[in-house]
């Protein structure tokens, strides 16, 4: 996915693009989207806005299959100024029955609280 979005290796980009176009189904896992967001952010210094647009473009492809609620949770968190993966983690924790998001990441805790969720900083009571 990175090759298609970034195009930094012309040969690999062509191959990746052809694979995506020819595939009957593209199964995009949530860990793959977390890794994509991280690589684009850290490795390519891509803005959160562009990462969000890129992920939306990928998951909205007619042949893409993805855990839509988890992806949307990550995108909502990213759009609010957080990390895609933190949004996914909060969503998965909630889906698994947890009522409180706990993290050492102050920003993530504040974003969860701002969205009406229960959250606390790890190591505090």
Summarize this structure briefly:
Helices cover 62% and strands 10% of the residues.
DSSP strand tally: 4
The percent range for strand residues is: 5-15%
What's the gyration radius in Å? Answer: 16 Å
The helix content, as a percent range, equals: 55-70%
Order of helices and strands: HHEHHEHHEHE
Please state the overall shape, judged from the principal axes of the Cα atoms.
elongated
Order of neighbouring strands in the sheet with most strands: 1-2
Average pLDDT over all residues = 95
Low-confidence stretches: none
SS-based class: mainly alpha
First-to-last CA distance: 41 Å
SS field, number of helical segments: 7
Largest pleated sheet: 2 strands, parallel
Task: Based on the model shown, name its key terms.
single chain; 125 residues; mainly alpha; two-stranded parallel ribbon; two-stranded parallel sheet; elongated
Describe the structure in your own words.
- The protein has 125 residues and is mostly helical.
- The chain has a domain at 2-88.
- The chain contains seven helices and four strands, in the order ααβααβααβαβ.
- It has helices at 2-6, 10-22, 30-43, 48-59, 68-79, 84-95, 106-114; strands at 26-27, 64-65, 100-103, 118-121.
- α3 (30-43) packs antiparallel against α4 (48-59), α4 runs antiparallel to α5 and α5 crosses α6 (84-95).
- The radius of gyration is 16 Å and the shape is elongated.
- The model has no long low-confidence stretch (mean pLDDT 95).
